[in-house]
Structures are given as C-alpha cells and as structure tokens.
Specification:
Order of helices and strands: HHHHEEHHHHHHHHHHH
Radius of gyration: 24 Å
Strand content: under 5%
Structural class: mainly alpha
Strand order of the largest sheet: 1-2
Distance between the termini: 47 Å
Number of helices: 15
Shape: globular
Largest sheet: 2 strands, antiparallel
C-alpha cells in the first residue's frame, strides 16, 4: 500500500492544460505520465476496490464470528464489544508508510518546522473514540438478542440515517431516488418489528427481542452519525488524503475506544468471569481464543475500509458499500448458524436491496453528469487554447 492519490476526474477532476504547463513537476515525460488523469483514475479505482473489499469481508466475518461467540456459550457484552476495537495494533506498522521527517531543498536536508499542538485533532480522536465504544456496546447487545438475519437487516438503516446526517453536516443533496431509498429501508426495518424470531437459536424472549431491536437501531443511527463526523473531520481538521491519515484515524479512535471499554470491563466485574467462560465454551478453549482473535482482526479490516472510503468519496458512499454486503451475512448465517429465513425477512431483504439499488442509480446519474460537465470544460479549454494560438 502506498500513499493515496487525489481523487479522479469524477471527484476532483484532472488538471487543465494551462495548469499542467505551469506545474513545476511537468519537466519529464515520466513525471507527467505518472500524474496524468488516467493514471490517477486507475489508482483511485484500485484503492476503491480494496477498501470496498475490506468493508464487505470484515463486516461479514465480524458479524458471524460475533454471533458464534454467543451461540457457543459466550455471555460477556463487554468482551464482545472489546474485540470490535482492540485489533488496532495490527495496523501500527502502516503508520510508518511514507513517513518523511525532513524536508529536502536541493542538496540540503532540514527538519520540518514545528507545528502547534493539534488540540482540535486530539479532541476529535477522544470524542469519536468514546462514541465508538458506546456504539459497539449497542451492537453487541443487538447481536446477542437477535439472529444474524434480523440484526443485519436492521443495520441496513445506517444508509437512511447517514443520508439524513450527511444532508445537515456534509451538504448531501436529497433527490427522488435517495428519498425512495430512505423510504424502502424504513419499511424494511418496520416489517421486522412485527415478528419475534422463532429462528433464534437462543430463543430470545419478546422483551429481549425488543431490546435487541432498539439497541441495533440506535447503534445504526450512531454509526451513521460517526461516519458523517469523520468525513467532516477529514475536510476541516485532518486535511490530508493519504493512507497514513486513514490508518491514524483508525488507530487513535480504536485506542480511545479500547481504553473506554476496558474501564467498563473491569468496573462491571466481567473480567473475573472470563476464565470460567473460556472453560465452559462449547467448542473448547482454543476455539474461544481464535474466535476472539479473528473477530478483532475482522472489525479492524472493516474500520480501515470504511475510513478509506470516507476520505476517497464520502461517508454516505462508505455506508452504501457496507449495505452492499447486506445479503452475504444472512445467507451464510442460514447455512452455517442455522438461522431461519422467514417470509417477512425475505420481503425485508428485498426492500433493503431495492433501496440500495435506488441509491446506486442516483450515484450513477450524478457520475454521468459530472463526466459531461468535465468533458464540456475540457472542450471549452481546448477551444480557448486554439484561439490563443491563432492570435499569436
């Protein structure tokens, strides 16, 4: 993984000819070819695919392993919450990517000028870390009381909440297709309120089902707000578009969240029950440890993918990719965890997928409009350059 490139023509647009001629880097054919719009666009799409894969794979694996933890005898909500954020040390080596501690001017290397202490950035990391800890706890409660199929469908409401928060915080425009997407996702979630899941292996009571539903819904709203705030922070505080910036946000917010959850784990007394829980785990001690280990890794992969998509495009697009993996977890849960797919769940899933397609169609229309405007701008620029040549 290298340093992230600027967005392609669909987002930022390539340099015009006049800008390219004025650029000091345009001295050799190699440098101009490496900074050409097509080269930047290809690298951008490769990064997009990698981040999207991280989101879908990490989310699916983390959800299934989290549910498996409860099915096999795990009962600690604090531990289930901790493994969602504690895997950040695997990302520490990536913080040293493209790290440059000196500025080179000609043949002289000088240290960079001292910068003031980033109070705003530290405040953001602390706030978003505590928020992440609380949000993960709500997800853990929901996953404990709901089967994966229901849990995943409720999580689809993230897209609707994110659209609303993006409208107020990130100036996201509402269009008929986006409104249609919000309505469909809302109906999809409302359908799940009217049934309790006989397919739940733990046979959760109606009260626990309601608690799980409300906690998952609240967690989805909270996570959507967190994505919009992260996008706002990238625009106004971080102001960098590098892979290291993505890793920094992931590591520091996870560090704060981990410390917060550890305080809760010890204060609640759950830490004293973990040894007995490991001994009573149905699949054995090794399976217990491996489940927690890979759950932690899976959620870190998911967080890196989400954060990368936020700074590459937007928080709303990051959530859309997350919703794209919606059918994966329920299907795998039916196969491996023996969840039951009722008629109401099937209808809710179809509505959620329809809502996703509606949003993606709007994104496709917006992309076409931007390409047309960019083409028109380039044609006008070529015509202007030709007129200057004729005058000369």
């Amino acid at each position: 993984m290298g340093e992230a490139q600027h967005l392609p023509s669909e987002i930022n647009g390539p340099k015009t000819k006049t800008e390219a001629e004025k650029s000091p880097n345009n001295t050799t054919s190699s440098s101009s070819s490496s900074s050409s719009p097509s080269f930047i666009q290809y690298k951008w799409w490769i990064q997009m695919l990698i981040y999207a894969f991280f989101v879908i794979a990490g989310q699916t694996a983390g959800t299934l392993l989290g549910r498996l933890y409860f099915d096999k005898g795990g009962s600690s909500k604090w531990l289930a919450t901790l493994v969602q954020v504690v895997g950040f040390p695997v990302l520490l080596p990536f913080q040293f990517l493209n790290k440059n501690n000196h500025i080179t001017t000609g043949t002289i290397t000088t240290p960079p000028p001292k910068k003031p202490f980033p109070y705003a950035l530290v405040g953001f990391y602390i706030t978003i870390g505590v928020f992440l800890a609380a949000d993960c706890m709500l997800y853990s409660i929901g996953l404990q009381y709901l089967p994966v199929t229901t849990y995943t469908l409720i999580c689809a409401t993230q897209l609707g909440f994110n659209a609303v928060f993006s409208f107020f915080l990130n100036k996201q425009k509402f269009t008929p297709y986006i409104v249609n997407s919000l309505v469909l996702l809302t109906i999809s979630s409302v359908l799940l309120v009217f049934q309790t899941d006989s397919g739940d292996p733990n046979k959760a009571s109606k009260s626990k089902y309601t608690i799980g539903f409300l906690c998952t819904l609240a967690a989805s709203a909270g996570y959507a707000l967190m994505l919009s705030l992260t996008q706002l922070a990238f625009q106004r505080i971080i102001k960098k578009e590098t892979v290291r910036a993505v890793v920094d946000v992931t590591v520091y917010q996870s560090l704060v969240a981990t410390c917060t959850i550890l305080i809760g784990l010890f204060a609640s007394g759950d830490w004293g029950k973990l040894s007995a829980e490991m001994e009573g785990y149905k699949s054995g001690r090794l399976s217990y440890v491996m489940n927690l280990l890979w759950t932690a890794v899976s959620w870190q992969v998911f967080i890196v993918g989400c954060t990368g998509l936020i700074f590459q495009v937007s928080s709303l697009f990051s959530n859309v990719i997350s919703i794209l993996g919606l059918p994966v977890a329920p299907v795998l849960a039916v196969v491996f965890l023996r969840d039951k797919m009722s008629g109401v769940k099937a209808v809710a899933m179809l509505l959620a997928i329809w809502g996703f397609v509606s949003y993606m169609y709007q994104h496709y229309i917006d992309d076409l409009k931007i390409k047309e405007e960019k083409k028109k701008f380039c044609d006008d620029d070529d015509e202007h350059v030709s007129e200057i040549g004729l005058v000369n």
